[in-house]
What we know:
By secondary structure, the chain is an all-alpha fold.
Amino acid sequence: MSKTKVVISVSIFCFLLSVTSVIKTQSRIIEKNIYKIEKKIKFIKKDLYESELDYSYLSSPNNLSIAIKDLSFAEYVPMDFSRIYMSYKDFIEAQKKITILKINNEKTKQKK
């Protein structure tokens, strides 16, 4: 009877010891992930703070009036509607058409 109690006690102890080590390992992995995420959050908060600081500086009335004065001397030309694209795909298709036309024109010149 006593021998079985010792065997049961030792087996329970070994089981709990192994479960404890598995749980400890998993908790370390979770802590490392939390640390990495906290590091990313700190970086993003710092970037946000700098962006807010830049925005508040650049949008101050004094700086805006200076920028308007500097830009008022520039001459702007309206853009043709043919140069405005709704998406990148439209732009690429237009560029392909332009290059195809150039290639065709070069071939006709060579034939003459």
